[in-house]
Predict the structure.
Amino acid sequence: MTEQNTMQQPAKCTNGVNVTALFETIDAVKNDAGLADFQFRAENRWIDGGHNRSTIQGFYGCRQENQSRSKPFEFDADEPPVLLGEDTGANPVEYLLHALAACLTTTLVYHAAARDIRIGAIHSSLEGDLDLRGFLGLSDDVRKGYHDIRVRMRVKSDASAATLTELAKFSPVYDVVSNSLPVQVSVDTY
Amino acid sequence: MTEQNTMQQPAKCTNGVNVTALFETIDAVKNDAGLADFQFRAENRWIDGGHNRSTIQGFYGCRQENQSRSKPFEFDADEPPVLLGEDTGANPVEYLLHALAACLTTTLVYHAAARDIRIGAIHSSLEGDLDLRGFLGLSDDVRKGYHDIRVRMRVKSDASAATLTELAKFSPVYDVVSNSLPVQVSVDTY
C-alpha cells in the first residue's frame, strides 16, 4: 500500500474482502510474477487403524517463508465404524468435499468483490458418489475415488447465476479435482 | 460376522484394522455390488470474506442412510492475512493436502493389514506448488490450482518401498487428484 493510500483513502471492503489490498496484490504480481509462487504444506502422522492427524502451519509465498501462524492447525481423520474406524474425525474423502466447498465459496466471494458484486449469503451442498469396489481392488473398471461430485450453491446476490458460476470456477481446488494433476508419491522405509 | 465367527474366533486385528471384518466386507460386496455404493456429503456456509464453515455428518452406504454420528464435524476455512483473510482456519488448498495425506495413509494401513504386512509408523510430508496468477486470472497459461504436489511418506515396515507405494495408490483422494473428475457446479440465486 502506498503512503498516499494510507494517508488519504480508507481501504475499500466488499464482501469482507479488502479490495484495495486485492488490487494492490494484483498490481504487484503483474510487476513481479515471482510474488505469485506459493507453496502450501501438510504433515501427517498415523495414529492407529483409520485414524491419523495432519498439522498445517508454515507456507511460502510473496518471496518469503510465512511464519505468521504461532501454532499449527490440526485435523484428525478417521473412518466411521461401517468402514472399520472409530469416527474420531471426518474421513479423507469427506475432507476433500470440504476443501472443494470452501474453495468455491472463497473464490466466488473474492472474485465478486473485485467486480463490485455484492454477496449476501452462500450456502453450498456437496455430494460425492464413490463405488467402494475400486478402493477394495475388486474391479479394474471401477475408479478408486469419486466417480461423480455435484455442488449446489445457493447465493444471495443480484448477479446472474451464470456470472457467479464463472467466478466460482476460478477455484484452485475445483481446478485440481476437475483436471488431472500428476502427484509424486515417494515412500522410504526404515 | 457369522455366528460361528462370533462364537469361535476372535476378530483378527492388524495395524488397528479389524481384518476379519474387512474380509467379510469384501465377501459381502463380491456377492452384492450395490453394498459398495457410497455417497458422502458436505454442507458449507459463507461467514465473511475468506471465512466459511463446513458441516459433515450423514452419508449413504451399505444400502442405507448412515445416521451413526450424533453430531456433525465442523471445519472452518479461511485465508492467512497475506491472502486477505483472518486465518481462523487452514485454507482450502491446505485442506486438500490434508485430505490427500490422510487418504494415502489410511489406504496404506488398510491394504497392508489385508496382506498381513505390519506397519509400525507412518509420517508424511506434503508440498503443493501454486502460482497465484491462475487464481487471479492474470494468465491463461497458468493453471488455477496446484501445478505440482509431492508426497514423501516415511514408513516403518519390513515390506519394500515399492510394495507400500503400490498399496498407498489405492487411495480414493489420490485417484481424484491425479486423474480428472468432471465436477457439476450449479448456482441458484435469490
